Amino acid sequence: MILLWLIAILILAGVLAAVAGRFNAAAPRVISLAALVLDLALCLGLWGRGLSSASRWSEELSWTWVPQLGIHFHLALDGLGLVLILLTMFLGIMAVLASWNGIQRSPGFFHFNVMWVLAGVTGVFLAVDLFLFYFFWELMLVPMYFLIAIWGYQRRIYAAVKFFLFTQISSLLMLIAMIVLVILHQRTAGFYSFDLQDLLATPLAPDMEMLLALGFLAAFAVKLPAFPFHTWLPDAHAEAPTAGSVILAGLLLKTGAFGMLRFVLPLFPHAVQRLAPLMMTLAVLGILYGAILAFAQNDLKRMVAYTSVSHMGFVLLGIFALNPIALQGVVVQMVSHGISTGALFVLAGALNERLHSRELRDMGGLWETMPMLSGVGLFFVMASAGMPGLGDFVGEFMVLLGTYQATPVLSALAALGMITGACYALRLAQKTFLGPNVHHSDFPDARWNERAIAVPMMVCLLWIGLYPQPLLNMIRPAIDNMPRQAVTARR
Amino acid sequence: MTASDLVALSPLILLSATALVVMLSIAIRRHHGASATLALLGLAASFASLRWAASVTPRQVTGLLLIDGYTLFYWGVLLALAAAVVLLAYSYLEHQTGHQEEFYCLMLLATAGGLVLVASSHMASLFLGFEILSVSLYALIAYLHLQRLPLEAGVKYLVLAATSSAFLLFGMALLYSETGSMQLATLARFYMGAPNAALGAAGWAGTVLMLTGIGFKLAVVPFHLWTPDVYQGAPLPTTALVATISKGSVFALLLRWFHPAGSLAGTPVWWAFVIMAAASMLAGNLLALRQNNVKRLLAYSSIAHMGYLMVAFVAAGPLAVQAATYYLLAYVITILGAFGIMSVLCSGEEECCELEDYRGLFWQRPVLAAMFSAMLLSLAGIPLTAGFLGKFYVMAAGASSALWLLLFVLVASSTIGLYYYLRVLVVLFSSLPEDHVKVMLPRGRVPAGAGFSLAVLVILLFVFGLYPAPLWDLIRGISAGIG
Amino acid sequence: MQLWPFVVYCALVGGLIAAMLGLSYVLGQRHQDRATGAPYESGIVSEGSARVRFSAKFYLVAVFFVIFDLEAVFVYAWAVAVREAGWPGYIELITFVLILGATLAYLWRVGALDWRSVPQGRKAR
Model confidence over B165-192: pLDDT tens digits? Predict the structure, then answer.
């Protein structure tokens, strides 16, 4: 039941915010923040209660929805889901705080959209019924579209439409793959079911398995984004408002990786084996290509967006390395990338609020007048570059370690990504915070909400970087449980 | 004809009687409200008598009409749609000069034609229903005959629909000469290649001609050319009528005709439908991309939607009829809602259907704009809405029959389709232009009747999108007899 | 089937038409004077245009005639089978005639049978 509440609170808060927004501009912000804090508390409570080791799911809820097709409203929580919904609520709070002052236009509708995206993301992390998963998968799309299209920057319409079309065509392919899987299952088992647990047992011909796996991967690879499907990302990230960018980079990208972990790996173990070399190659290409492009950007937000491509390459690499250590690294990387990139987008938003520009050439020497903001910025830039002691390093290191067991060559190439990461990170720091203050910019330093965002995020990154064990403990059972089929298939 | 036959026909009889009563009431004294009320009462009575009729079904009435659960279900849908159109038309016609009352009489007749079509099991009743529907639509489309566009649309529709009727009739004659039967069920057996039932050249020619006639009414490619002009020119309530009752009843007829026993798969007729489906999906969506008039855009999108519907139609198996029915229901609710909202927004004699008229609607009329967005999202097949589940069922039906190519076309074309729905959404939510002078209906003045029907449509849209189980059971029940 | 009477009949019709047109062509005089093209060659100069607009009312009346006349055909069809149709048939026919009557009443009340041409009258005023 608590799982339903996690989603329902967000949805209700969204509606409430939209209604309250018509009377008072501040009310939606307060309502959203309160709802997210409540949800975060619930999640922490779930964590504090500990994960059950006996059964696969420590919390479960299953209602019949469409009995004729075996569709259930089936939510379930394991360690992986818990980590990611914690991240969701955490980044949700940051996103609301980040847009505390920036959003003047129709705050009610804005927060409605933010809440509904988060509800969709939460649903994605909890759903174990394929239909329900798809339902939430699409649910997070429309509000995100509105966030970009209404509150975005100059080229927002183009970016929003591109984002929507890319995601939609790929997810329709996934929907067809789901339906086919269910129908194949019905032919052998005699009943319709969209439940993950039922479908795991479906016997599949190798070619069919490959096709279905590709159908699922299409959706997840676009969302992740994997290398050739990433072109929507820089536009969407750069044009979205700060909250939108934070949610996009921090959460929506993670849903792609999550989908691979939860559905593709267990459902199609043989196909995954066959696809692994290809996907890992794409991942390495993504890491290097993203890093190079990030280095060449002059727009702060686009630059951060391309670093996402690079970082999510590590995630993809780790997933298809198909061993427990890499998979754990993937989850750590997902969390820490969510936090560090989210923070960088908040930073970019804060700078844009002051400078009214996202161009690197309009910046430089900001340290002089904004020491606190710049210091914080440097921290997150370094985190993003994979500095030891901060979260991203742990994730990337574990992924590389795991990959080395699978393919040393690709691991070595991917390690280059950490060097290129340092390159763009240093360039970013150099061009914005350091150097002479040529533009004689003089702006107020970090406001209360920016501090409130930065401090917990820094704490989290340091904690993951220095003592990741609690996080790993949380993920470990889920990982042990999940890819068993994939791993056994290889043996 | 026995008493039970009359009971089975009671919804149809009541509906026709209502048309007559409305006409007589006009003869006695013209009053817009009275005519609309009478029409509504008649529709309600007819709807109520469905229950009564259900007590004696299934029953074949006089060899012409087959009244079973399927028929009654579609009758109910058509009557409910007609009631919604009456409510919307009332507020729309209030703003128009000229006589308003005859609209209801004609509309009831068109609905009666639709009812006959749905129930027909014989070529004669098929043609009768077809013509009652068409002839009423001629007048309805040109109802505002003092304006240029409706008149043009009316004439276009008249010429083309009359031609298509002629095709249909000729096709029937040829088929009759070949098969010696006018029963639709017998004909369907010929298409399925039953033993001792092969069609000769005349029979195939007749089939092609009949499909032309039916394809015209459905507006599938390549018989779609009239759609944009007629949609654009016709008054909005009529457009809603064409999009829902006319197409819905013809499709219901087709569904019953070709699904009495087993599937058509692999036969030439089946291939014709497959090609029409693929062409409609692609052409409809591609042509809609560059439209700047919302009515034209929805006209092209309706072509595409008929294509989606045909995917379910050509699929075999128990899912097919159910999926098609569900999709059809979702579609008519959505499109009626969309046209309804547009008609509420048109406050003067002029319709405001240009895309630019809707710029920034959300900031002026948030509720109506949100409803319109919901309708657009449903057309695009986004979850939470009935349109999504409809598309989902269509895909399931297609996948269970392994129609990979059609499914691929469906995915590709609905992504194209998404683009133009998004275009409208963008306009709805974009900021108001500086020199914004166009005054939409002032806030809070949606007429009660229209508001009520829109609210019901929106609620149905979400109910069918979120909790389809009861409806799905109902559809399964009624389609058991035919699928 | 005996086709030849029909063929002869057609030939006779064709021949008659050809004879009438041909004879007038051969025998008739022709001249090309100033007033040859005028509508009336009676020496009076014509006034106004020959393209006079007649009220569509005439068309409407013609259509009503066709409709009501055609509907009467159904009564004949019933009359042929009156015994077989029995009372139900009688009731159905009465319904049919009543509907026709109602239509007539409607047409009368909305002024469709009004002979006068309203728009022209308005123009005159």
Answer: 999 999 999 999 888 888 988 888 787 7
Query: Phi and psi for B354 in degrees, rounded to 5?
Result: -75, 145
Examine residue C49 and state whether it is found in any structural domain, yes or no: no
> How far lies A202's CA from each of A71, A209, B45, B328, in Å?
17, 10, 52, 32
Average pLDDT in the C38-44 region?
66
* C-alpha to C-alpha distance for A139 and A159, rounded to whole angstroms: 19
Better-predicted residue by pLDDT, A438 or B331? B331
Cβ partners under 8 Å of residue A169, min gap 6:
B411, B412, B415
Is the pLDDT at B105 greater than 90? The verdict is yes
Residue A353 region by backbone torsions, left for phi larger than 0, else alpha for psi between -120 and 50, else beta: alpha
What share of residues in chain A are helix, strand, coil (percent, to 5)?
A: 80, 5, 20
- Could you list the residue range(s) of the whole structural domain that residue C99 is in? 54-125
pLDDT value for A490? 41
B154 neighbors B231 (Cβ within 8 angstroms): no
Per DSSP, helices labelled H in B381-447 are 386-400, 404-429
C-beta atoms of B26 and C88 within 8 A: no
Q: Is residue C36 part of a domain?
A: no
For B392, the token pair is 């989902």
For the cut 90, the answer to whether the pLDDT of residue B240 exceeds it is yes
Verify whether the Cβ–Cβ distance A139 to B383 is below 8 Å: yes
Q: Which residue of B has its CA nearest to C86?
A: B1
Residue C118 lies in a domain: yes
Write out the H or E segment, with its range, that includes residue B66. strand B65-67
Number of domains in chain A: 1
CATH number of the domain at C58, please. 1.20.58.1610
Mutate to test the interface with C, among B6, B12, B24, B64 (most CBs of C within 10 A): B24
C-alpha Rg value of chain B to the nearest Å: 21
Contacts of A66 in chain B (CB under 8 A): 468-469, 472
Q: Residue B18 CB: number of other CB atoms within 10 A? A: 25
Q: What percent of chain B lies above the pLDDT cut of 90? A: 56
Closest CA to B473 of A68, A64, A193: A68
Q: How many domains does chain C have?
A: 1
Domain span at residue A340 reads 268-491
| pLDDT surpasses 80 at A392 | yes
pLDDT tens digits, one per residue of A112-131: 999 999 999 999 999 999 99
Q: What is the ipTM of this complex?
A: 0.87
pLDDT at A483 over 80: no
Residue A115 lies in a domain: no
C34 within domain boundaries = no
Separation in Å, CA of C3 to nearest CA in chain B? 24
In tens, the pLDDT along C53-91 reads 766 677 788 888 888 888 888 888 899 988 888 888 899
Residue C106 CB coordination number (10 Å): 20
Q: How far is residue C32's CA from residue C36's CA, in Å, rounded to a whole number?
A: 6
From the list B399, B415, B473, which residue is nearest A183 (CB)? B399
Q: Which residue has the tokens 């012409």?
A: B64
Q: Does B20 touch chain C (CB under 8 A)?
A: yes
Report pLDDT digits (tens) over B357-383. 888 888 888 888 999 999 999 999 888
* Separation in Å, CA of B23 to nearest CA in chain C: 7
Q: How far apart are CA A121 and CA A143, in angstroms?
A: 11
